[in-house]
Known about the structure:
- The chain has a single domain (7-244), classed as Vaccinia Virus protein VP39 (Rossmann fold), CATH 3.40.50.
- The chain is 34% helix and 24% strand.
- The protein contains 8 helices and 10 strands.
- The longest helix is centred in the first third of the chain and has 14 residues, at 7-20.
- It starts with 6 loop residues before the first helix and ends in a 7-residue tail after the last strand.
Amino acid sequence: MTSHRPPALRMNRLDRLRSMLASVGPLGETHLTLPRSGVAYRITRPTDVDRLLDAAVDDPEQNLPYWAELWPSGIALADAIVARPEVVAGQRVLEIGCGLGVTAIAAGAAGAQLTVTDYAPESLWLCRYNCLANQSPEPATMQMNWRQPPEELFALAGDGFPVVLAADVLYESRDVQPLLALVERLVAPGGLLWLAEPRRPVAARFIELAVERGWATSEPDGVWDGPWPEPNDARVRVRVHRLYRPAAPRV
Length: 251
């Protein structure tokens, strides 16, 4: 599926977003090939990460610019979506932490009615830009810290999203309970959390607790071992899970 915007309007949107991205600093383009499907994307990304790190010093939340990197988990989740586009096609879909937009490109191209979220507004701009540049529909966006979600997010969710996407969002043990509480409000009853993670113990603990609370797991989509665009990630292996929220509250 290509972008719904006519070519002229799409180019206008790209030009406008490019002007907004001037504040990010110099940008470069990475040619990314999804490991299993072979689908190729062109990803625009910041090239001066030190500048972003300097800017983060003044951030009261001290959130580092993780969004500016191409993480294996996001790539693997995009590849899983390409393999099973029917899971998101025609569905209201939310992504927690969109980064540069790799997963969003795949979800939008598969026909998802997509809303993406991230802490950094620059991430949302680049996600929109990369989706349009790769002929995928421009997603709706919401800036947020998922550890302190705004009420507007839950108003948008309504009775819940049929599909919620999350790639590499679990870093520390303190992330487990907040994320579980969040997805129990965001995923519709019977809906899907599609989770990609680089085999950290904290992710295994999250899945264990979700199952204890009644979530069902399907057979994992598998383990991805690259190749990844960053040489430092050569040994990273990503597991992709599908977790289904209970269709009815537990008694």
